[in-house]
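go over this:
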Amino acid sequence: MKIEGKATYTDIKGVEYPIKGRGSLPDDISLKDLKVSGKISFGEISCNKITIDGECNGKVFSAENISIQGTAEVDSVNAKNFLQIKGKPEIEKIVAAEILIESRGGKIGSINCTKIKIFHGENHDCGSILSNIFGGKSFQNNSRVQIKNIDAQKINLQNCEVEEIHCKDAVINSNCVIEKLFVEGECEIAADSKVGETIRKEGL
């Protein structure tokens, strides 16, 4: 892996090492913790906890907990417990227990998890300002996170465009377009979201 910026990593013995400027580590190194502020490119990374603030580009992330703030262009992300992304995800495959994504765009292939929430974050009162300018008409940001498929127990989505969802309980909030929704339990759909087909299933 190659790192530009600032980073700290903790080896399996619990010893912490700093990186400033530019540095590199073998992809197969065993780590407990990796924190990067800047850019990181890699083949495969596996450790207990990964925290990225900036830009990451690579093939496979594997960790107990992963936190990314910025841009993530990754083939596969595997978080045993928790995955948090704040920024723009460009990821082919995500597997995690719990996922929290704050984004206004990006593309994700497949998501497999227990619980997922995707939202676009605060508008900083931009909507109310534009509403006043345009005579009381509400402003809607139509940018969406594009996802091929989601398989989860519970989903809570906002500003998403998804081809197919399989879940137990679904909350589809504002500005979503869902082609097919397979749902077993509770289902809430916002008035300004569109679901092409809702299919009730048992025992998903």
